Amino acid sequence: MSKFSTCSFMSYTTLLQPRASLKVQKEGIVTARCTKVARNLNMEKLRNNYLFPEISTREIEHMKKYPNAKIISLGIGDTTDPLPEIISSSMADYARALSTPEGYKGYGAEQGNKELRKAIAETFYGDLAIKDTEVFVSDGSQCDISRLQLLLGNNVSIAVQDPSFPAYIDSSVIIGQAGDFQDETGEYRNIEYMRCGPQNHFFPDLSTTSRTDIIFFCSPNNPTGHAASRKQLIQLVDFARENGSIIVYDSAYAAYITDESPRSIYEIPGAREVAIEVSSFSKIAGFTGVRLGWTVVPDELLFSNGFPIMNDFNRIVCTCFNGASNIAQAGGLACLSPGGIRALLSVVDRYKENARILVDTFASLGLKAYGGVNAPYVWVHFPGSRSWDVFSEILEKTHIITVPGSGFGPGGEEYIRVTAFGHRECILEASERLKSLFS
Ligand SMILES: Cc1ncc(COP(=O)(O)O)c(C=O)c1O
């Protein structure tokens, strides 16, 4: 066995130990051998560890306490099913050809392979008049969210759904758009939190929402699983147009929509002048590890001085990125072939069926569960309970990892998120364990 593979079997706890020669004074602060470089103050402002590392730490502690427990992870939203052969073989063929004089390719276009940009425009935006030149292929939408923050700089104000995917707020803090974290509210200053819950059909009350430059909006939403209706998105686009704001619309889960909800913000008239869309192959094609996504920046989207935003985004992509892996892009093209689409939608259907099993499980226990119909996430309400307490109780009694809703913002308190990504037998086993805990 190689050194490398041996290392991959080391326990997490070993890897997390500080090196013996370094003294840890307070959490994360090491005293020996400091440089003279001051820490980025924005990084200092970041409140918690990123949510998922914190969950991993708790999982490791649980494994130490119950070494024989069979843990089921319904936590991090990572895909579990193997890639369809038609997609993996296209990447394997491409990779093999790289070893031949005819098949070798070096750098590609920073904006992505032309054929793939065209296929994305046609497949996901059909008759919405998105041009291939408006599609920027990337290594995933989380990376694009940060690149967009770099493009926007620290002088803009932002609004986010509360609860929401943590990358919007964290990248905003890192770039310097946010003020200090307030313990009393669980919010950063200078960020507009748009509360979304069952009380407002998971759509913010825009009449009380302050104007911001940027509005991050995710639909179907992670974590609530809610897909905004056409009527809601018309209100959102109108709001952005009235305020001269830009919507950064995250459609990473659009493939899970089963009802009439729009799959793209560009289905809404007027959106081209106010919206950027980020999206991903991660959850539709199981590319969470392969890494492939895209961002659409329409021609008509302009800064206040009339400068096209697309030109600046192009500059950011050329300077800070240099293009997605050509092997991943070959896989992306295979995904969008007729056989590829059929194959990946059948995987999506399997996850949707998992979601249905989970929704039924919670419903049978008399718990209020949202989502799961248009998204691979089920959002479960435990009125009066703190979400980390619910997380801990479920882990302690059933060995199931969930995600505490408060990790997605103060609006997630009293909820947990459960993912439908998982092998069917694990979902069924989790369902049985939850039934015996709560019934
Ligand atoms: C809403 C949302 N956007 C973006 C991402 C990141 O996707 P990618 O793998 O393309 O970086 C995730 C991942 O969980 C997500 O939930």
TrEMBL record:
<keyword id="KW-0663">Pyridoxal phosphate</keyword>
<keyword id="KW-0808">Transferase</keyword>
<dbReference type="GO" id="GO:0009862">
    <property type="term" value="P:systemic acquired resistance, salicylic acid mediated signaling pathway"/>
</dbReference>
<comment type="similarity">
    <text>Belongs to the class-I pyridoxal-phosphate-dependent aminotransferase family. LL-diaminopimelate aminotransferase subfamily.</text>
</comment>
<dbReference type="InterPro" id="IPR015422">
    <property type="entry name" value="PyrdxlP-dep_Trfase_small"/>
</dbReference>
<keyword id="KW-0032">Aminotransferase</keyword>
<dbReference type="InterPro" id="IPR015424">
    <property type="entry name" value="PyrdxlP-dep_Trfase"/>
</dbReference>
<protein>
    <recommendedName>
        <fullName>Aminotransferase class I/classII large domain-containing protein</fullName>
    </recommendedName>
</protein>
<dbReference type="Pfam" id="PF00155">
    <property type="entry name" value="Aminotran_1_2"/>
</dbReference>
<dbReference type="InterPro" id="IPR004839">
    <property type="entry name" value="Aminotransferase_I/II_large"/>
</dbReference>
<feature type="domain" description="Aminotransferase class I/classII large">
    <location>
        <begin position="70"/>
        <end position="425"/>
    </location>
</feature>
<dbReference type="InterPro" id="IPR019942">
    <property type="entry name" value="DapL/ALD1"/>
</dbReference>
<dbReference type="GO" id="GO:0008483">
    <property type="term" value="F:transaminase activity"/>
</dbReference>
<dbReference type="InterPro" id="IPR015421">
    <property type="entry name" value="PyrdxlP-dep_Trfase_major"/>
</dbReference>
<dbReference type="GO" id="GO:0030170">
    <property type="term" value="F:pyridoxal phosphate binding"/>
</dbReference>
